[in-house]
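Researcher: We're teaching a course module on how sequence relates to structure. For the next exercise, students receive a sequence and then see the predicted structure as tokens, so they can try to spot secondary structure elements on their own. Here is the exercise chain.
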Amino acid sequence: MLKVKVRVSKRRRRTIYISADISEALGISEGDYLVKVEGGRVVMDAIDPFEYALKVKKFAKTTFEAFEKESEEMQNEQWAKDTA
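Model: And here is the predicted structure for the students to work with:
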């Protein structure tokens, strides 16, 4: 078993630094979701972002129509950049 020490910063930031050796051995890439809490323990494990989104406490509300409008605007902006 590999043990790694992680220090919590004064501001309790969400950043955890993982060595390149560990990242390569586990196939961890930038942007991967890794930390979850199980029974009072912090567990480093791959997390499906969609599963996570369904389980966490929600902090914002939106309607399907508002979400769809925002999505269309973002797609139109990207299309304009790609075709410019």
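Model: If you want an answer key for the exercise: Residues 20-83 form one domain. The chain has a mean pLDDT of 79.
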